[in-house]
Amino acid sequence: MQKSIADSKSSLPVVTLRTFSKAPSVETSGVENTGNADLARYERVISAVAEETSKCGADIFISVQDGDASRIQSAIAEGGNLGSPLQSGGLEAQFGEGLTGGDLIGWALSIMDHIGAKNWRPIIRPPDTTADALPNSGRMAILSDWGTGLYGAPASAASIERTGGYEIVWHLGDVYYSGTQREIRSRFLDLWPTGAGKISRALNGNHEMYSGGYAYFDTLLPEFCQPSSYFAFQNDHWIFVGLDTAHTEHDLDNEQVSWLMAVLRKAGSRKIVLFSHHQPYSRLDKQGPKLQEALKDLLQMRAITAWYWGHEHNCVVYDRHPTFGLLGRCIGNGGVPSPRYSEVRNALQYLESAGVRWMRIEPNDNAPGCLVLDGPNPYVVGEEERFGPHGYLTLEFDGERLTECIHLPDGIEIFKMDIA
Ligand SMILES: [Fe+2]
């Protein structure tokens, strides 16, 4: 059963450690190295990705939080040469002869210099400060960091499709490796549970912006009939706001903050739930100081009831934040294999459910205490014990009540809590 899941998506390319071992170095390419800064940059990126890839094992998909590296991964994956199927899923991408056309400098330059922040696709903003209407009772399904097309990602989509009846199905961002046109199609839209919800929405992620954001804004958003990269929905009791924290990296520009404040002023006494790609804080990874600064008034007023984000490829349920008063959740375990942290594996077990465990991590200066999902990932075939579980979130709203539920890719519920 699990093997067939991996096999069913085996045509998607995976850039592995072996792929990088065959990437030409400047030395072996025959190019005369005369201190060319671009070539030095190319070599730095190739070795950085190879190092990152080595942490995950020879056969596994890896995402790197770096634009140059992600674009090189996309270029290799789309280079046309694919090797044999990998046991864990996907086809191994090859650094083939034809990839650089014999012009390593030109190839490297075309990847690394073509898309700088100054060439990014301009953001598409909401036309006004009106929140779209939602009924007072209904359900939403939310995936994040799901755009690999591999491992637990197709199984989660299939479960969401099978359950169906959602008001909104949305993605909190990241289509790998760099959100190119081909990747938006093959790793995202081809697998999206289109029939599961009345509305589909996709937030922007850093990986979409690594290719300049063109495919996200010009292909994905029109496909979803989504007018802008940030937006709001509301009913009589709740306002749900999706933010674009990627067009300005891990931040919000002043115009988006002004829009948010205007939308929330009009929302009156409705309770606020935020959704974003990036984290405002983390117990296990980097912090979000710019997001905290941009929204400091809301946070200090304890105005936000809950905030869901991705970017980190873990599933983390935080205790209520002592200063901000909100319940934070990271649900970035949508489709990237994430090596299990020893800190989590060695923590105190809080709960075991369906073969996975919730581990209790104590607070530190950055973040409240939390439960972190740990356990094997049966969708990374052959490396099950090495990577944490994939899955997705559903939210059920009924009047003033809001209930969250975390699922494994096969749909099994492993955590349920009333937010309000
Ligand atoms: Fe991300």
Draw up the topology in text:
Layout: H1 2-8, E1 13-14, H2 17-21, H3 26-29, H4 37-56, H5 67-77, E2 82-85, E3 91-93, H6 104-112, E4 132-133, E5 137-143, H7 152-163, E6 166-171, H8 181-188, E7 197-202, H9 206-209, H10 214-223, E8 231-234, E9 238-242, H11 254-266, E10 271-276, H12 289-294, H13 296-300, E11 304-309, E12 315-318, E13 327-331, H14 342-345, E14 348-353, E15 356-361, E16 370-374, E17 392-398, E18 401-407, E19 413-418
Parallel strand pairs: 1-3, 4-8, 5-6, 6-7, 9-10, 10-11, 11-13
Antiparallel strand pairs: 2-3, 5-17, 8-9, 12-13, 12-16, 14-15, 15-16, 17-18, 18-19
Helix pairs in contact: 8-10
Bound molecules: fe (ii) ion.
Can you describe this structure in just a few lines?
The protein is of the alpha/beta class.
